[in-house]
């Protein structure tokens, strides 16, 4: 017999800047206005091999609901969100715990059906999601750390530069105004046996992310965090 | 016509100690061994009206998988877990985002069915969950903050005291070894305009939670966090 054929290598997904660029080109072809919506909270690691994190909490419900409404109003929406925070149209589903397990029923076959009484908003939500997906109106990008958030925000803003001042920036994410530079970060878990933990945070704005001029180019900037005021140049 | 009848007040759920006590009585009647499994990470607020939190990250997958296996092996499991961390049998479902929306299909009716190719483990997971639920073998209790975790751990351990040394403590949660006493906590959001943020953490073990003797009564204690060694008396 023949030797087994090795599986074809899975191509890596294109970086966010490339995905943002091709998505933006589609929005322009279709004559859509575009919005960049940020949502959810950032995470700042306290150690290089991190066990502990500083979190700015946000469920992401406001950002996810706003993204849905903007798509319904005809916008193309780049949705820059914290991994596992609220997602447009998925707000109709409870988190993967008892409420979701109780709402799913095993039927003869066997197959699984959703209980319409437990999930009354699910059908319209799925139809809304499918319409947005088929229209290519939503570009979801995920961040977890503050560093990822800032890098993606810059990449997305640059990809949307061809729209000029017609882009809407809707910055609903809860963004840390503190971070620990890599050079100051302890390598391993801070040991409690060494006594009380003293964590020094550094002001954002003194580091490499101090001057995001590209944000000030936008026509509409809606922010929920004071720090952006300081950062606009 | 008659005046509208006011809706009956919804009774508050019984506190964890009462739920734990009646659940433990059922396990004893049925001759089950019991295990207390903790899972997920704790949250420590940095302000009284908190915007920022110190998080010990844990997905909770190990604790959730262990709870499933223990129930399958005949144990009654008290599952003390971080809200929205991995939940037994719900590991077969992706988080409520694009992967879950893509796996749910609107069918004529309309109704919603799960795509068996996208969610191959869902049917056995739902059957396992339903068996555990009907048998009353799983008691899920949720925590978010470190304070809630410790209070629930104590209440659950006390509810399981009638089992004596046959209880298994399986402490898979990622628990902070630092907390900020309420008396030392700033009331409002710490302002970044006041300069670099300096956060002083206090060693757990000097506060009200220093001597949980009830843990040392258990026959099997499996821990994943060093701090418990210090706390056992």
Automatic annotation (TrEMBL), chains A, B:
Q: What terms describe the molecular function in GO for this protein?
A: catalytic activity
- Domain DNA/pantothenate metabolism flavoprotein C-terminal: start-end pairs: 35-80
Biased amino acid composition, Pro residues: 1-16
Disordered as annotated region, ranges: 1-20
Kindly name one Pfam family recorded for this protein: DFP
Residue ranges spanning the membrane: these are none
- Tell me one GO biological process term: coenzyme A biosynthetic process
Sequence similarity: Belongs to the PPC synthetase family.
Annotated protein name in UniProt: DNA/pantothenate metabolism flavoprotein C-terminal domain-containing protein
The record lists the organism as: Chelonoidis abingdonii
The opening ranks of the lineage are:
Eukaryota, Metazoa, Chordata, Craniata, Vertebrata
